[in-house]
């Protein structure tokens, strides 16, 4: 088993990475000082596969645990579903000494974490991510929330988990589509912070896509290290943490205008990264060679770099609604080389419009 430490003073916690960790979840949670009753929040598909195993591990360590199932999909990460979780928490008698466990992908982690942050003014929660995207990104850092029709994650909180349990063996049940979408966040980490990691991903795509255990554990470990290091220096996104939004400004806008139904989150982020790289190249910040390497790596991992025909004006209207915008001006994270990015508000609408048109199919 490997561990990455999220260093946040008295709220520090461990991200544990190891095959078979779901079966050891009860012992891990006892080690983190948790006690009493909990609600396990999982989407229906994940709950059918891993719910009984996790409940057994928790009950075997003396916890009282119940499973609550969510409908799968980003379109269900809503206040309506959050209210259903609150009512389930009340029905099973959760109090301020209780806790929540999220089991599943980023949607389950976000909505369960938000419910934990707001139930009785905040109770502990634990992340057990089962998708690659959630293991390398969504489960780490304490950002929780739900969507509104007008935009993604507009309602949320910073609520750090008590800990994160990552079992790479669960990736065996992911279809190739879900696996590829997780690699979008992996590639993002390399572009924003580690050129050598980018080179590793270029050379080891076949090993990664075949889910070779040693390769996947190395990838999960390095991505968690990168994100934990950034969050530890800027937990509340006042500066440095904004670089983790590389690809998300346009990616979130794509998700919003398509109702979260056309693309998975990682696919939308991949298109957003391709667009941001194109903007950086057009403005002269990024070399043509680096731009081509970024596009090639995204495609190597089966990710889209162009979007279906989306009305440009509709997309442009959605961008300033992003929660990271300031005064109606979108903030873009742009690469200046592989391994280094910067945040700017200085991207003109004409440049965005031109790039979006170039990157659209049809």
What is this structure's SSE topology?
Layout: E1 2-6, E2 13-17, H1 25-31, E3 37-43, H2 44-60, E4 64-70, H3 79-91, E5 99-104, H4 106-118, E6 125-129, H5 132-138, E7 143-148, E8 151-158, E9 163-166, H6 176-193, H7 195-203, H8 205-209, H9 213-233, H10 248-257, H11 265-282, H12 288-300, H13 312-318, E10 332-337, E11 340-344, H14 349-358
Parallel strand pairs: 2-9, 3-4, 3-5, 5-6, 6-9
Antiparallel strand pairs: 1-2, 7-8, 10-11
Write a concise keyword list for the protein shown above.
362 residues, alpha/beta, Rossmann fold, Dehydroquinate synthase-like, alpha domain, 2 domains, 7-stranded mixed beta sheet, two-stranded antiparallel ribbon
Plain-language structure description:
By secondary structure, the chain is of the alpha/beta class. The protein has two domains: 2-172, Rossmann fold, CATH 3.40.50; 176-358, Up-down Bundle (Dehydroquinate synthase-like, alpha domain), CATH 1.20.1090. The chain is 46% helix and 18% strand. The protein has 14 helices and eleven strands. A seven-stranded mixed beta sheet has the order 1-2-9-6-5-3-4, sandwiched between helices. A hairpin with a 2-residue loop joins strand 7 (143-148) and strand 8 (151-158). Helix 6 crosses helix 9 (213-233), helix 10 crosses helix 11 and helix 11 (265-282) packs antiparallel against helix 12. It is globular, with a radius of gyration of 20 Å. The model has no long low-confidence stretch (mean pLDDT 93).
